[in-house]
Amino acid sequence: MTIEVRDLDEITTGEEIRVALSSALKASLEDEMRLRSGFRGIQAALIRMLGRTAQKLLTIGKINIGLTVCQIQGRITVDGCYRCQGYGHHAAKCLDIDNLNACRRCSMTEHKKKECGRSSPRCIVCTNGGVRADHFAGSDQCRASKAELLKAKDRRNGRATIRVPNYRTVESTGWASVEPVMLFPTTLGGSFGRRLDFSTLLCQE
């Protein structure tokens, strides 16, 4: 599981974070840690650890590091597949298109990312899904990674969801039958679109 320690000041070091968390846990913390900078130098630390250790820190909720009270939150991560370059599974269980030889920058198969000279990125997963793909895979514009992230959030919260593109929702107060609809196909085995509640009807716009 990955936890995120937020609101770290810009001079906080990884060792300071490790010492503070080890003190809170009353045990040495040797797990992998990554620091990333945010707005106005505020940092966040991402730490992968065993679930039971993470739960202890999440129960604590806050921790003093330096002169700052830092928030401890669980972070939802999405598995990535190096075979299809998609999300939500690993290569060993991949049933999607083999994109192993595709450039991870422009999606072409003639070269690898380190040899790519193209100025414009192209996400191969969104390309195969038939949606806008002029972005890097996994970026804020990537609908494929966003869709899988929503699924991961729903699984954590115990919710079931349907995603259907270009449909509006109509409130329903009782049972009703609707015409079958075609879900948008993707290489993720799911659908892009907005999240709908089971108490709604689907009506094509």
From TrEMBL:
The gene is LOC107227672. This is Uncharacterized protein LOC107227672. InterPro entries: Znf_CCHC_sf. GO terms for molecular function: nucleic acid binding; zinc ion binding.
